[in-house]
Amino acid sequence: MNERTRRVAVVGGNRIPFARSSSVYAEASNQEMLTAAIDGLVARFGLEGERLGEVVAGAVLKHARDFNLARESVLGSRLSPETPATDIQQACGTGLQATIQVANKIALGQIDVGIAGGTDTTSDAPVAISDRLRRKLMKVNAARDTASRIKALAAIRPGDIGLEVPQNGEPRTGLSMGEHAALTALEWQVTREAQDELAAASHQKLAAAYDAGFLDDQVTPFRGVERDTNLRGDSTVEKLGRLKPVFGRGEAATMTAGNSTPLTDGASVVLLASEEWAAERGLPVLAYLSDFETAAVDHVNGGEGLLMAPAYAMPRMLARNGLSLQDFDYYEIHEAFASQVLATLAAWEDPVFCQQRLGLDGPLGPIDRSRLNVHGSSLAAGHPFAATGGRIVNVLAKLLATSEGGTGRGVISICAAGGQGVVALLERA
Ligand SMILES: CC(=O)SCCNC(=O)CCNC(=O)[C@H](O)C(C)(C)COP(=O)(O)OP(=O)(O)OC[C@H]1O[C@@H](n2cnc3c(N)ncnc32)[C@H](O)[C@@H]1OP(=O)(O)O
């Protein structure tokens, strides 16, 4: 924070329970889910009819009809229709990037309060017609008279007719994110056992968080669903150990449906404000969002693993703040895949990686694993791509607000498709 900026408060958050793809939210749209998440927040913080500085939100998979999804969701919500809204997209980094965008405007005094959010549904994916058919239909549409319309229609061949279904893969490598992660897991020698242990722990910790009421003021029921539907009681190390690998071949085949995030539907939002705005409303500040950093790696030419960019972003943010990796009470590392969390931690512990790839004098070192994802993370909750960032910001802010002692700091690390990664630093208020 320099003298031109102000502190950014996380006032609170909300999400709908996350649901496995093609299940209970199969008929829900991104707009409905994001609107429900916003309205839950509006109800919790008495924001009905309020004109906020801005709502920034996004979805990774979006229908053309959604246009500016954030704005349409605001118009459908109980906020004032005079609240401006902007769409944003950075794959799985979307929710955290939305948070950063709102935070920066608050820090610079351009707005006093805003909502950051994200939503995604793989149940209602934007299936499109083939490129060739679309181009030919555009010509039909542009034809000025019947004769030219018939001529344009006659140019359509049976081979032009096809669908383009969004693929869960990298456009430049053709590999799915799971296949990329399997290669990284092999490079870092992440074992199947370690992945299954992390996945089982994630389920146990999230179930305990629900049972303890930690999520009562973070999750609003939607369509009769009260808890994340991916959360399951039988997610034990023994059960997980019996699942067949789904990504990677040979010795790289360590990743299963249980130690990978499932395709998920859901939405989340975060309420951010200046301290003054929160004080005027008598609202508590859970935590301050102090800093953030984004990095990108070259996953296309084999330079680095697709999901390893947070490993690069972290030391830059630490250096700027004069901190070490051990200076945190809580580590919230998005569990895209169990192997990805473990590969990132291994990279930070590795002196050669830290010197040669990160340009550091020595390793960042190990973290206290008992402080990692203490209430579970995406393996248990599920991962509706753009909604994960908001879920994590809300959990970490409340963790800091409800704990005492320690350093009062927590850190977020989120890997994203396209070889990008975002990290953020939160501090207890
Ligand atoms: C930056 C990022 O975040 S990158 C990450 C982006 N996300 C992704 O790439 C999504 C990756 N995930 C997927 O593609 C899919 O979820 C897959 C391929 C992993 C699995 O899909 P499916 O095959 O449909 O999995 P499905 O739900 O049927 O599970 C397979 C089996 O595992 C079991 N299983 C799944 N999870 C668990 C669990 N946590 N505990 C116990 N058993 C489990 C299921 O019950 C099922 O068992 P059955 O065959 O006896 O019925």
In this structure, how is the largest beta sheet organized?
Answer: 10 strands, mixed
Query: What is the ordering of alpha helices and beta strands?
Result: EEHEHEHEEHHEHHHEEEHEHEHHHHEE
Question: How much of the sequence is in beta strands?
Answer: 15-25%
Rg, rounded, reads 22 Å
| Envelope shape | globular
Question: What structural category characterises the helix and strand content?
Answer: alpha+beta
- Count the DSSP helices: 14
Low-confidence stretches: none
How much helix is in the residues? 25-40%
Mean of pLDDT: 97
Number of β-strand runs? 14
- What compounds sit in this structure? acetyl coenzyme *A
Instruction: State the end-to-end distance.
Output: 15 Å
Summarize the structure.
The chain is an alpha+beta fold and about 425 residues long.
Structure characterization notes:
By secondary structure, the protein is α+β, with helices and mostly antiparallel strands. It is 35% helix and 18% strand. It contains 14 helices and 14 strands. The protein has helices at residues 30-45, 69-76, 94-107, 131-142, 146-154, 177-187, 192-211, 237-241, 275-281, 309-321, 338-349, 351-356, 378-381, 388-401; strands at residues 8-15, 19-20, 54-58, 85-87, 113-120, 128-129, 163-164, 245-247, 255-256, 264-274, 287-296, 330-333, 409-416, 420-428. The strands form 3 sheets. Strands 1, 2, 3, 4, 5, 10, 11, 12, 13 and 14 form a 10-stranded mixed beta sheet that branches. A hairpin with a 7-residue loop joins strand 8 (245-247) and strand 9 (255-256). Helix 3 packs across helix 14 (388-401), helix 4 (131-142) packs antiparallel against helix 5 (146-154) and helix 6 (177-187) runs parallel beside helix 11 (338-349). It starts with 7 loop residues before the first strand and ends with a strand. The relative contact order is 0.20. The structure holds acetyl coenzyme *A. Acetyl coenzyme *A is lined by residues 92, 168, 177-178, 232, 234-235, 239-240, 243, 246, 257-258, 260-263, 307, 336, 383, 415-417. Acetyl coenzyme *A (ACO) is lined by residues 92, 168, 177-178, 232, 234-235, 239-240, 243, 246, 257-258, 260-263, 307, 336, 383, 415-417.
